[in-house]
Design brief:
This is DUF4317 family protein. This protein is α+β, with helices and mostly antiparallel strands. The protein has helices spanning 3-11, 50-62, 108-116, 119-128, 134-147, 257-263, 272-287, 293-313, 322-331, 340-348, 356-359, and strands spanning 22-30, 37-44, 72-76, 154-166, 182-196, 202-205, 210-213, 220-221, 228-232, 234-236, 239-241, 244-249, 319-320, 354-355, 368-371, 376-379, 387-392, 397-401, 408-409, 412-413, 422-423. Helix 4 (119-128) runs antiparallel to helix 5 and helix 5 (134-147) crosses helix 6. It is globular.
Length: 424
């Protein structure tokens, strides 16, 4: 799921949205201490009062808000349990050949039961059955209660809705049906929210016209900052993918691994920062720990060209693999790339496709940092070739930056001095 798809869907979380009618909202209060469900509440969206609807809409919008691969992650289910059918996934229809890796399950019936209770199957059935979300949401909450304990009581909100996404611009002249340019995508979105116990305060009771302390029972559901969340299925450019789920993390660049692996039944994927660190480790192995600025600029520019080209030609997330990185390095003047494959195996476990946006700096901003203990400078990637680390005749290291205009410090232009003795 790309940035544009998320933004388009997020815009529809508003009252009276024509493109995203919401069917029902289901909320469960789960106690921290014993995993007990205190209450359940099913609401049909159009029957709720306006203020309550707005609160829920803001809460669900938060689950779709954040940077991809930092707070929003498109994750693969560990294995697909879905049969090729438009009906509910029956246990007997599950392909047992896909389940041989399930641990601690010794019999075929046990494997079928594990597949039937997988989160992917539960969510798929919740959408395809035509029934209320209640039974299926309860199964997800049961997995939460068994596998993870939050620091506070939580309220889990589920929404079942339909999103009408335009596939293409409709021609006014052509005789096209609405189905030709609008796709209906049914989805489920879940948010996990902290229950706050307010501090002791003095409040005014309008009913009794008196001042009184608030009660410890006056709990507040924090809908502004979900702890975890997800949406099923994932979709991109009109294509729905039931083998993926969109996961939301409250902490940037950090996933709740238990929630991802044991509740969603998904595989952990690297964050954007982790991908960048892995790419830099591979580059460091091949090139060495020292590199010329112009070589670094050449590498970034060649990879960025692939990003711009793929964004224009394809709808999928632009990526580069080991073969393409080898080509980039050789075109950038690095001929000794024999260690590239072993570097990939050591860092990534084998060939791996890096998302380009995670491994190259932003060419539209000062995204390159030049730093040591006393210096911190940021420049654009296109300016890399204009810098040098040099040593003068006295052996002192200096940073030499080619300038097109005067430098200012605290509003003052620096005086230009003639330097003739620097050895480059």
């Amino acid at each position: 799921m790309n940035k544009k798809d998320l933004a388009d869907l997020r815009k529809e979380f508003k009252l009276n949205s024509y493109m995203m009618p919401i069917k029902e909202i289901y909320s469960i209060y789960l106690k921290k201490d014993n995993g007990e469900i205190i209450t359940r509440e099913l609401n049909y969206f159009e029957m709720m009062d306006m203020e309550k609807r707005e609160l829920y809409l803001d809460n669900f919008k938060k689950v779709l808000t954040g940077t991809i691969d930092a707070k929003i992650f498109e994750l693969d289910f560990k294995m697909s349990h879905l049969a090729e059918t438009e009906d509910e996934v029956a246990v007997d229809d599950i392909d047992m050949s896909e389940l041989q890796n399930l641990n601690n399950i010794d019999n075929e019936e046990g494997k079928k039961e594990a597949a039937f209770t997988s989160t992917q199957t539960i969510l798929y059935n919740a959408l395809s059955s035509g029934q209320s979300i209640v039974e299926y949401a309860d199964m997800i909450v049961e997995k939460m209660a068994k596998n993870y304990t939050y620091e506070t009581d939580i309220v889990i909100n589920f929404v079942k809705a339909e999103y009408f996404k335009g596939n293409k611009k409709r021609s006014e002249e052509a005789d096209e049906a609405i189905d030709d340019y609008v796709q209906a995508i049914e989805f489920i979105l879940c948010s996990v929210n902290k229950v706050d116990i307010p501090k002791k305060v003095l409040k005014f009771d309008y009913a009794e016209m008196t001042f009184k302390p608030n009660s410890a029972l006056d709990t507040v559901i924090n809908l502004n900052s979900p702890l975890d969340g997800f949406m099923f299925p994932s979709f991109s450019s009109g294509y729905v993918d039931v083998n993926k789920v969109v996961y939301y993390s409250s902490k940037a660049k950090q996933m709740n691994t238990v929630f991802v692996e044991d509740i969603l039944d998904c595989s952990i994927k690297p964050t954007g920062i982790e991908e960048k660190e892995s790419f830099n480790a591979i580059l460091n192995t091949v090139v060495g720990d020292k590199i010329k600025p112009e070589t670094m600029q050449e590498i970034y520019e060649r990879i960025n060209e692939k990003l711009e080209y793929q964004e224009e030609e394809e709808d999928e997330e632009p990526v580069v693999d080991m073969k393409e990185i080898k080509s980039v390095l050789e075109e950038s003047g690095i001929k000794e790339t024999e260690s590239l494959q072993s570097a990939f195996e050591q860092v990534c476990g084998g060939d791996y496709e890096f998302k380009i946006k995670n491994i190259v700096p932003d060419f539209n901003s000062r995204s390159i940092k030049i730093e040591n203990e006393t210096t911190n400078i940021t420049i654009t990637p296109k300016e890399l070739s204009s810098i040098r680390q040099v040593r003068d005749k006295n052996g002192k290291k200096c940073l030499l930056i080619e300038l097109t205009e005067d430098v200012q410090i605290n509003g003052f232009k620096l005086e230009t001095e003639e330097v003739e003795d620097i050895l480059i």
